[in-house]
Write a structure and sequence with these properties.
Elements lengths: L12 E8 L4 E9 L5 E8 L2 E15 L5 E12 L5 E4 L1 H9 L5 H16 L5 H19 L1
Antiparallel strand pairs: 1-2, 2-3, 3-4, 4-5, 5-6
């Protein structure tokens, strides 16, 4: 069963999605639409415990004409585990996109800088990030009910 939950107002702010998978893992998305952030974090929770985060580096975020949040993926991703392990994924795809001129040098630099900033700031305190994620997860659960 797959279901999507968004807050009542689509005028910007944070969008939430919830995907329920048969093995009872919950995937949530926190999108900071309208805030100018260049990343879109997803999280996976099972039985109230954070399993991992997957963070897409993005070029642009917004809400389309149908009121659906979107973002333009910039190839590079961070996979983050609760033990503090951070895997930088798809750097090769980002470099290839630059060499093929699918992205600009400015987009490449923004992507790399955003990845480094996230690792230095938000992801440097995993216990705090876990608590933040749990609060978001509870908000998603309340929206469902």
């Amino acid at each position: 069963m797959i279901e999507t939950i968004t807050p009542p107002s689509r005028a910007g702010g944070t969008g939430f999605e919830r995907t329920e998978i048969q093995n009872r893992k919950i995937v949530g998305t926190i999108r900071n639409v309208g805030r100018g952030d260049c990343y879109a974090p997803y999280f996976m929770v099972e039985n109230g415990k954070v399993l991992l985060w997957y963070i897409d580096m993005t070029a642009k975020q917004g809400i389309d004409v149908d009121g659906v949040p979107y973002f333009d993926d910039l190839y590079l991703d961070l996979v983050v585990y609760p033990d503090g392990t951070i895997i930088v994924d798809d750097m090769d795809e980002l470099e290839e996109a630059l060499s093929k001129k699918d992205i600009t040098q400015e987009q490449f630099n923004l992507t790399v800088e955003t990845s480094h900033r996230l690792q230095r700031e938000m992801l440097s305190n995993i216990p705090s990030f876990i608590e933040y994620t749990k609060r978001c997860y509870e908000m998603i659960r309340k929206l469902r009910n």
